[in-house]
Amino acid sequence: MFANLLSLLVLGFFAFQPAFTAPTSTALVPRAFTGEATYYDPGLGACGIVNTSSDLIVAVSLTYFNKYPGAGTNPNLNPICGKKIRVTYEGRTVDVAVEDNCPTCAEYDLDLTMTAIKYLVDDPVFVGRLKGVTWEFIDTDGGDGGNTGCGGVAAWTATSVYTAGQKAYYGGYIWTAKWWTQGDIPGSSNAGATVWTQTSTCS
């Protein structure tokens, strides 16, 4: 009888155990994206830099801008600022730097300057919205404190201290500090406009 009771207890224990579920893998974030592209007339962008329609820059969607790894409450310090992306449409491409966000864009849509979008179509006004545009990041250090920077010049970071003559890479350009500075974004409309001198482009 004891043996029968023990068998019942063992069977009951296994009967009430939850079924084993294999852990699911976390999907990798895709490197390439597909969306639509339009054009706009830039000014002071979310990254704190004043641009014009002749600059090769892009505004990503506000949704993507805010969810980019490292994004915080200050959009000027978002690590996506200065990142270079390659945009492709019907076999034509253009490389642009992220300097702004687009509040009305869908997550993977882009807003390009008129100069930039003309690399993709000859008459953007006639064509209108470009559908089926693909884009991908082509650098890993533009403006977010990466170690490689450009041409041996390290990328600008908000926490680094720079003294007169020191260089930093930000937004596709190499900048030279005029005097001691920390946290002043190169080319921005605040103190960064006077603290830094744009030395050269970086491609």
From TrEMBL:
The protein's GO terms of the molecular function aspect are: carbohydrate binding; hydrolase activity, hydrolyzing O-glycosyl compounds
What CDD domains would the database entry show? ChiC_BD
Q: Which GO terms describe its cellular component?
A: extracellular region
List the Gene3D superfamilies hit by this protein, alphabetically. Carbohydrate-binding module superfamily 5/12, RlpA-like domain
Which biological process, per GO, is one annotated for this protein? carbohydrate metabolic process
The answer to whether UniProt assigns keyword Signal to this entry is: yes
| Family annotation (SUPFAM superfamilies) | Barwin-like endoglucanases, Carbohydrate binding domain
Tell me which InterPro entries the record gives: CBM5/12, CBM_sf_5/12, Expansin_CellWall, RlpA-like_sf
Which keywords does this Swiss-Prot/TrEMBL entry list? Hydrolase, Signal
Taking every annotated instance into account, which residue ranges of this chain make up the domain Chitin-binding type-3? 153-199
Lineage top rank: taxon: Eukaryota
Span of the signal peptide: 1-21
**Name recorded for this polypeptide:** Carbohydrate-binding module family 5 protein
